[in-house]
Structures are given as structure tokens and as C-alpha cells.
């Protein structure tokens, strides 16, 4: 909505919409859970959701209050972004702006490839819950890594979107660069804590401390901000692999 220059019509936002320009707009969700009473209180004409939004009871209450609810497709890869942008733009009567935004996003992503093809692994970490996973095909991070011209070693070699991280699997993959979410890295005690996890220190990335952390709300939230992320990611990967 912000990228479609539609901030002026926003009366509420979800908790993952963290742009500075939106900080004064009330939050009406807790994660993907809609807080129906907060939505109804704001008296919007339209509520835009996706398939992950719930619970159904809250959505039914919103509809019961006479508020129109439009469901848009989820976006899990770079290829999904244009479809979602078009759907949101159509919902607010701004299809032309949606087309213009999609053109600008595609152009920015195309110019973000790096000269080399480093081997990159995405690690999903939740140290407080002892969850340590390696991203594979369909993790979402794979499309970002591909977009910058690097090789996602997990997507190339592992069977599932997320796979148990072991010393053996890391030794086989041996990435030059490791990408993690910021809070995930914090949960294991930063880079020093990450290097203590089995197998990490023995990889090329571990030896050079070539670790890039990305804001949790941005890495796998495919939308208009993703094009800027791809550009920043390309620069970061190039910097740590010099």
C-alpha cells in the first residue's frame, strides 16, 4: 500500500508492516491473527488479507459488521510479487499504479546480480527452541539467492524446503556465505554463538565469518521492499566474498 502511494487511505496495518512511514498507523493483528475488535473500531471500508490471515471467526465478525474483505494471493517467491501487487492495486482501484510498480521492481531486481557465483546457504535458527534448519528448494530464500546470481547450495542438494542442520550436511554443502535472520542469529548468541554450532566453523563461510543477517520481517516477506533487499543482499554477498 505504501509503495502504491496509498498510505493516505490506510487506517490500520499488520504487525509485519514495519516501514517508518507507517509507524503511526494502528496495528490490527498479532502475527497472522486479525484482532477483529480493533479492525471494526477503525471503521474501514475495505480490509485486504491473504490466505494465511485468520482466524475465520474474526474475519466473519468483520464481514458481519458490513466491512468488505478482499483476499489476495500469498507471495512465497520473487515470481509471486507481481501477482500480489496487481491484486492489491486492483482492490483499491489503482491498477495502473500497480503496473508501474511491478515494472520498477522487475527493473531493480534485474540489475542486482553479482559478478561471481558464491555458494550460499540459508540457515533458519531459533536457538531458544533448539531449531536449526538449512534452507532447501522452496524455502523462499532460494529465489533471493538465485536473483543475485549466487548458488543456493541447500536448494541444489537437499530434498525439502527446510532440512535438519547437521555437521555432516554442512560439511557436504560447504557454503562460502551463510545468510540468517537477524533474530535467529541473536537467538544463538551472534556470530560467535553460530560458529559453535556443529559444523559451522568448518565451512568456508565459518572460517571467514562470512555471515549476513537480514531483518526477520523482510527476508521471507515477498513484496515491494524485496527489490531493495535483493540489491542490498547482492552488495553484502559481494563484500564478504572479496
UniProtKB/TrEMBL annotation:
InterPro entries: ABC_Transporter_SBP, ABC_transptr_periplasmic_BD. Transmembrane segments: none annotated. Residues 1-242 form the Fe/B12 periplasmic-binding domain. This is Unannotated protein.
Amino acid at each position: 500500500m505504501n509503495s502504491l502511494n496509498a498510505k493516505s487511505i490506510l487506517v490500520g496495518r499488520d504487525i509485519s508492516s514495519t516501514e517508518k512511514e507507517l509507524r503511526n498507523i494502528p496495528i490490527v493483528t498479532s502475527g497472522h491473527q486479525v484482532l477483529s475488535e480493533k479492525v471494526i473500531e477503525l471503521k474501514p471500508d475495505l480490509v485486504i488479507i491473504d490466505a494465511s490471515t485468520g482466524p475465520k471467526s474474526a474475519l466473519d465478525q468483520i464481514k458481519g459488521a458490513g466491512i468488505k474483505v478482499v483476499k489476495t494471493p500469498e507471495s512465497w517467491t520473487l515470481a509471486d510479487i507481481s501477482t500480489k501487487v496487481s491484486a492489491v492495486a486492483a482492490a483499491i482501484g489503482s491498477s495502473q499504479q500497480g503496473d508501474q510498480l511491478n515494472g520498477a521492481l522487475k527493473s531493480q531486481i534485474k540489475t542486482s546480480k553479482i559478478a561471481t557465483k558464491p555458494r550460499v546457504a540459508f540457515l533458519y535458527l531459533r536457538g531458544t527452541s533448539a531449531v536449526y534448519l538449512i534452507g532447501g528448494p522452496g524455502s523462499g530464500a532460494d529465489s533471493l539467492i538465485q536473483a543475485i546470481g549466487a548458488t543456493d547450495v541447500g536448494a541444489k542438494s537437499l530434498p525439502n524446503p527446510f532440512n535438519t542442520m547437521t555437521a555432516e550436511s554442512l560439511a557436504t554443502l560447504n557454503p562460502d556465505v551463510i545468510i540468517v535472520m537477524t533474530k535467529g542469529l541473536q537467538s544463538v548468541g551472534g556470530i560467535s554463538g553460530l560458529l559453535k554450532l556443529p559444523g559451522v566453523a568448518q565451512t568456508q563461510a565459518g572460517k571467514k565469518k562470512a555471515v549476513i543477517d537480514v531483518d526477520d520481517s523482510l527476508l521471507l516477506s515477498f513484496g515491494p521492499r524485496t527489490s531493495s533487499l535483493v540489491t542490498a543482499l547482492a552488495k553484502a554477498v559481494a563484500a564478504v566474498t572479496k
